Structures are given as structure tokens and as C-alpha cells.
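Task: sequence in, structure out. Protein: ATP-dependent DNA helicase RecG.
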Amino acid sequence: MTWRNMSCWLRCAASRFKNRGLPSVGNPKMLNKWIVGRDDGFIQPWFSNRGTCGSPFRPENRYFYFTIAPLPMTERTTFFETRLEYLKGIGPQRAELLNKELHLFTVADLIQYFPYRYEDRTRFYTISELMESMPSAQVRGRIRDWHTEGEGPKKRLVASFTDGTGTMDLVWFQGLTWVEKNLRRDGEYVAFGKPQEFQSKFSIVHPELDAVRADAEPDASLTPVYNLTDKLRKRFIDNKVMAKAMRSLLENAWPHIHETLPASLIDKFRLVGKREAMWNIHLPQSTAWLRQAERRLKFEELFYNQLRLISNKLLQKEEHPGQIFQKTSLLTHFYKHLLPFPLTGAQQRVLREIHKDCLTGRQMNRLLQGDVGSGKTIVAFITMLLAIDNGAQACLMAPTEILADQHYNGLKPYADAMGLNLGILTGSTKTKRRKVLHEELQSGQMHIIVGTHALLEDVVQFRNLGLCIIDEQHRFGVAQRAKMWAKNPVVPPHILVMTATPIPRTLAMTLYGNLDISIIDELPAGRKPIKTVHKYDKHRAEVFGFMRQQIELGRQVYVVYPLIEESETLDYKDLTDGHESIQRAFPQPKYQVGILHGKMDAFSKDYEMTRFAKGETQILVATTVIEVGVNVPNASVMVIESAERFGLSQLHQLRGRVGRGAEQSYCVLMTDYKLSSDTKTRLETMVRTNNGFEIADVDLQLRGPGDLAGTQQSGLTDLRLADLAKDGAVLTAARESAQLILEEDPNLVLPENAPIRNHVDAVGRTKSDWSRIS
Ligand code: ADP
Ligand code: MG
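Result:
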């Protein structure tokens, strides 16, 4: 029976002893391993056959010990797969509750259900030591007397509590009769709660109150507070029970917890061991231990997250060949004769990165991040030229028809000038036209196809698709991207994913760890930063005045209304009301006002959009359909109604619709008076900066990564401890470490990487391999 094979450990004895040395235990063959713990919670495995010589035990400490007997393996389950109902101290009834309420089923689930905060009951404070800044404090003293004060909802029970250093009040607003019945005059209690100061007297409202037992001592560890439901509490699964269950679980699990990180990393980053970390995340011996445990577990979590992404990326590179795009004659022609403006440094750098990818003979999988207006379209076009130059076809997929149209119209002049065939395929393409397009794609006559989801259909086949560019990628699902791969059965197309939603670096690393990332972090020269202001609804007249003035100067204006599914009817009313009032304020024939929303048919949308793009309408009242990618350089004012209802990244996207020409552009955020503090932060951030990455960082702080697009499918929701908004430094370290290790030892066969190999094997291939195709 090996150490590892034991499926369960039985706690045979837990006897305390002092100055007595270690007791010897029964059959030494069966019970040759012990776990020994000190009274302060420090635990370590100890091998009795090593003898006491050189043992870490000191007579001044008190120890308890467990001896362990192996149990037969049950149905090949490992200890961590043990279902909770079989766990001592839990049992079937509690297990069922934990299943239902917290979705905890196995030992692994429970042991990884970490506290969300901790209370410090490791010491008693005297009343004279109390400070209002303390989040909570534990005080030991006697109840002298009590009385009720106030009437109605303000009626409260006030008990006078003293410990010789001072007097404080314990206050109850609820359950007065019950409390009163249970208080003992001059009884000694431990009170715990948040101290509040009023007229230099402290009080605790609704304290936790325990009668002092003779051996009352402060807790050895911080008290964990778990996220529990009311139902659990009603059925007596409270934090105390959880802490007790965790203690017993950790004791049992101790020998099964193996180090999951190689010694080199533990040394390098001075991490605590896995066991100490697991113990101290639940039952921290001190705040310092807690910090260490958190740091270690966050590192581990991010390390494995990155290891998985990077090794998938390496796999992908090996497995998937890509066409080699060597010829550049079209490209040279375009650069020489047709390039409409000098490329920015960032555009050139990104193009070099792309070109390099296309020469390796492996498939490119690259994410191109660039703020709105940074000029991704031209980069996409030049990349397409590279493909066509080498006998391949290219496609550009956009999430909406409006965008696809816009790309088509934007690329058409270039394509014409280059003598290239450019087509467009969307949901509204007529059947007859479709047939032709399908044939032209199959014969290779069509060089570039721009389109929407319609491109994904199986009937769309290419002669040789060499490049697939996906714009605004977060609107497409992983499965859809996989479909594009299959459009070239011989060699999968190179993939370039473009997004204008700047993702903070930390998040990008995690979300798209398997993609290479290129960033356009420079706007074309001569762009003036958009001036952003925040105005309350009552300043509307002033805002209208400003719009008039800008229109006089020949500019155009967007007015955007929120449209949120649940309140759709209401939102449409806002939109149409808004449209009417703007028409009244900007009457015909002097002014032309257009309207654009998602419920309009493709033809009307196109009509309105075209009129605005041509300058025939001066004001476009719209919903967020204009959010993505729309490009009308002459539009220089963006008014956002009910700006409080938009998320930060959405506001930034919308603002990006202006500031595309040479003129000074403006963004006006209109809101109600009542604003939450988060909303104020959003608006202030918008007013302060135009930098998409800075905005994305604030957004991440406000919302957390869970809300950001794409995180559902990324495995990011698996992160239990690490917070991408705060743990960027840990992520970077974890990623670099994972990268180094995989470079040196891609198959993790070196002995020093055994802990990684074992952990990866243990976690197994159960998780779906989503990242392959993202
Ligand atoms: P996005 O990155 O948001 O897709 P676009 O590609 O639509 O941005 O570019 C925005 C505008 O900037 C377009 O009108 C485009 O012609 C222009 N533009 C792009 N690159 C440059 C450049 N290097 N110099 C000047 N204007 C540029
Ligand atoms: Mg764009």
C-alpha cells in the first residue's frame, strides 16, 4: 500500500500530550505515517519510522496527532472525487443541501470553496482599545444591566457591557424578548461585532454573544466567512459549522494534497507550499499567513490557466500548416500608387508582424487590437492583398449588415483600382445574386468576399481560402469561427481577428492566451482628441444650441438612445419621442433629421445610413446599431441620451463614431440628476480620457472580468481567487513562468516538472478544448 494509493485516511486518535515525546502506535506496518499538528494550527506530516531524532518537535509546544490507517480503494475514485455524503461530519442530508444550494458535490468542490472574507477573533480587545476604524472586534466582559429605549421601529434593547477598562453598549433592535430572556446579569460574555462610536461611547449593534466558558481562549486562526444561503443557515449550516467541516476535511485531505508547482517556482517566487496554502486559505493562522496562502493559490491558478492556453497555442502551431505568402507584387503596387495616406508606425509594425506569420508555413492566429479609429481596415486590406498575391482568396466577416456594407463600400474603390473582384454576401443578398457569388467563389474568380454570418453557410465554398478576417470578434462565437477553418479542407486559412474593444493586457493574456496579439496603439496623425462633456437633462436647450452651431459649420450630429432588450417598448418610445422633439427643434427644410434602429428593414437602414454618410441629413437619431465600426468622418458631434444606462466600453465605442475627420469633435453625455457612484465614475472617466486601454482598465475594475465579452467561453470563470483587475502582476509572472517551462520542456518530461505533469494528468482532459479554435 503506497502513500498515494490510500483512498481515505481514518483519524484514529487525536490525543494531546505535553513533554511526553511521541506515543508509539499499534501495528507499525499499517500505521507508519502520521500527521502531526501543533496547537496553533501548524501541521506537518511526519514519518514515524524516521524516529524522533532530528524531529521538529519542541517540548514547549503542545501537539496533537492523527494516526492513519489505509482503507480499501472504492471504485477507483480518488479522495478528491469522494462525494460529500460520504464525508464524516457532513452526511447525506447536509450533502444534499450543499449540492442544491452551493453546487458542491465532491471533496474537491468543497475544499475549493474558499471563504470570501475573514473575521479576526484571534485576540480579545479591551473596551479602551476599541477604535471606530476596526471592521470588527472581540471583547470579553460582563453584562451589568439592560433596559429598553425608544418606541416603534426604533425600540431597542441596550445592555451595558464592561471589562474593567471601560463600558460600552450592546444593542438589539430585533428579537428583544428572546435576547432579554437569555441574558444573565453579571454574566461573563464574549461579544463580537463592529464597534461604533457615538459621543465617545462605543457600542456594537446585534453582537454575536457567547457565554464565556472556563477555558475561553481566542481562536487560533482567523474565522473564515463563507458565502452561504439563507436556506443553509436555517438548516444550521452556518460559518461555524463550515469552519469545523473544513478543519476536519483538511485534516483528512492533508496527505492527499500534493505539491502542484515545481520547486524552482516555489523558490523563485517564495511561495508557500500547497498544503500550507490550502490550510491557511480556510483557517489562516494569521493575516500574514492568509496573504501568503492567497498569493500562492492565485499564482497557481493563473499559472495553470496560462500553461493550458500556451500549450494549446504551441499544439496549434505544430498541428496546423498555413499557406506561405511570399509574393508581394500587388502589395508593392498598392504601396507605390494607391496608398491613400502614410501608415502610422503602429500600422506598419502590425503589418510586419502579420507578414512574418504568413511566411512561417504555419497557420496565423492573430488578434489585432486597436482603438476605434486607429485604422484597422487598411491593415485588413493590405493583408488581403498579400493573400491574393499568392493565389489565395480572402474573406472579411462583420457582425452586422451595416458594418459589412461599410467595409464593402470602403474597400470597393481600392479593389477596383487594383482590378480585384470584391463581393458582398449578407442575409439580404437576393437568391439569384447569391448563386452567382457562390459560383464565383468556387471558381476563384472572386478575390475578396465581405459579409455577415451568411458567409458561414455550408454552400459558401472557396477555391482556395487563404485568409479569414473577422471584425469585432466578440460578436462571433467560437463554433462559428471553427466553421471558417473548415472552408479550406487542404490548408486552414490564416485567421486575423480584429477588435475595437480594447481589452486590458491582463485580460487579453487570459482570454486570448492562445492567439498572438498585435496592438495598434497610435492614432493617425492630425486627429484631435474628442472633447467630452457631461450635461444634465435640464441643459438640453444649451446642447441643442451647440448642435445648431456645429451644423452651421457644416458638421453632422449623432443622437443615440439606449436600447436594452427588457424594456424594448419603452426604449422605442424614448427613441421616437426624442426623434420628434429633435425634429421640432430642428425643423425642415433647413434641417434634415434621420432615424436608424434595429427594427427597420435592411433597405430603410441602408437608405438612412447612406443619406447621413452623404451629408443629406445633418442629424441621425439612432440606437446602438451605430455602435460598431460605422464611419462618417464629417460627423463630429455625438450626443448620448441616458448615458447612465450605457456601460463604459459601450460609451467609448459610441464616442469612437466621431473624431474620424480632421475637425474637432465632441461627445455630450446626457443624464438624469440621480446617479450612482459607479455611474459617476464611468462618466468622469469618459470626460477625463480618450484612451481605450485606460477606459478598459476602469471598466474591468468596475465590472470585474466576468461581465466582459467572451469571458464565458474562456474558462475565466474558472478563476476562483485571482482577480484580473488586481492581479495583473501575478498573471504576468505566471505567464512568463509557464512560457519558460514549456519552451524548455514542452512535454513536461523533466523530473523537476513532475509536479506539473501530475497535476495536469489529474485534472485530466475533462475540460473541453475550447481554446483551440478561438
Ligand atoms: P477602425 O480601427 O476603427 O476600424 P478605420 O479603419 O475605420 O478604424 O479607420 C478610421 C479612419 O481613419 C478612416 O477614415 C481611415 O481612412 C483613416 N485612417 C486609417 N489609417 C490612417 C492613417 N495612417 N492616416 C490617416 N488616416 C487614416
Ligand atoms: Mg473598423
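The longest helix spans residues 287-319.
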